[in-house]
Amino acid sequence: MTITISPAESQATTGSASTGTPIATPAERAARLVPLLAEGAAAADETDSFVAGNYALLKQAGLVEAGVPAELGGQGAGLAELSEMLRILARGCSSTALAFSMHTHQVAVPAWRWRQQKLQAAEPLLRRVAAERIILLSSGGSDWIGGSGEARRVEGGYRISGRKAFSSGSPAGDLMMTGAVLHEPEGESVLHFAVPMKAPEVRVLDNWRALGMRGTGSNDVLIQDLFIADAQVALKRKAGEWHPLFHIIATIAFPLIYAVYLGVAEHARDVAVDLARKRPPGEDALQLAGRMDTALQAARLAHGWMLSAIERHPPSAASVNEVMIGRALVAENAIRAVELAMELAGGAGFCRASGLERLFRDIQGARFHPLQAGPQSRYAGAMALGLPVDRIF
């Protein structure tokens, strides 16, 4: 199934879906896609298949370039708007929304740097996203602060080899924003660069078999002896410790990623309520519904805290701490809300036909993104006690 959007509508910045005029915002565009995304969600889950058709819909709707500044050809959406877009997409297909959040934050970070730090080096990439609707991948799940893979110095650049796990959206990707560890006498460094996914030295492994989020295509990506020229290296940093760039990444990326889990929890709540209304309400159902909505509201409040962290602090250890506290609270309460949704739905929720058991599995992914429970608690504790956090990740 496809969605038809006229060129004028694709570039629109005002209007309303309800009046038939051009859809203005990424959230309105996302809402229009929800029933289409939902059509293949169960099938992708059951067959471990990447949601390729849904990515085509995202491109047609102009959401790929939503976060690119308008001056560079995009929609100019900010962090809150992009979060709302992803939260709504999750109501149609959890996997589509989560995989697309990785592209979205890889656009949002350079867009923020272009606007706030006047980083002109970000402009060519952003213009490509807007003009060509290329898909960016993140290898953060396997790289993060420690880095992974190996960079070997050769004339004019480096030879890169490595295996990048949890590469969500990999079958649709054009560029992977990643890194590799360079071993030098003075210590290990991490080089950052973009990997062209169509290069012969790059291979997407069809190995994503998981409890939930099965349609994300989060396969391992194998890189074998890929040449990266010196001019292609965007950053060189010390391995195993926070760098200011990662303060920016963490502060901007995680509110986007966790908007997806909030959307999953909201979807589960609605499914459970619909199922519960088919039975006469009892005291136990009232209790479960109330506790579910309370947990869901706690997740919403925590996510709002994440979004506003960048307004209270410039990207820094302080903003990372606040975002990661919010991330822990969103995960805890979103997971709890879906658990209660399962109980409220009763036996019907246990059956695949309702879709609720899939959402129950999908929400578990909220546990596994950085900073996980242990590092997050240690980071917050070190901040509270005035101790270093450079190596807590």
Automatic annotation (TrEMBL):
Biased composition (Low complexity): 12-21
Gene Ontology molecular-function annotations: acyl-CoA dehydrogenase activity; flavin adenine dinucleotide binding
Acyl-CoA dehydrogenase/oxidase N-terminal domain residues: 38-114
Source species, domain of life: Bacteria
Domain Acyl-CoA oxidase/dehydrogenase middle: 140-225
Region described as Disordered: spans on this chain: 1-23
Family annotation (Gene3D superfamilies): Acyl-CoA dehydrogenase/oxidase, N-terminal domain, Butyryl-CoA Dehydrogenase, subunit A, domain 2, Butyryl-CoA Dehydrogenase, subunit A, domain 3
One Pfam assignment: Acyl-CoA_dh_M
InterPro entries for this protein: Acyl-CoA_DH_C, Acyl-CoA_Oxase/DH_mid-dom, Acyl-CoA_Oxase/DH_mid-dom_sf, AcylCo_DH-like_C, AcylCoA_DH/ox_N, AcylCoA_DH/ox_N_sf, AcylCoA_DH/oxidase_NM_dom_sf
Transmembrane parts of this sequence: 245-264
Chain intervals with Polar residues compositional bias: 1-11
Keywords: Flavoprotein, Membrane, Oxidoreductase, Transmembrane, Transmembrane helix
Residue intervals of the Acyl-CoA dehydrogenase C-terminal domain: 258-369
Alphabetical list of PANTHER family matching this protein: ACYL-COA DEHYDROGENASE (PTHR43884), ACYL-COA DEHYDROGENASE YDBM-RELATED (PTHR43884:SF25)
Protein name: Acyl-CoA dehydrogenase
Source organism of the structure: Teichococcus oryzae
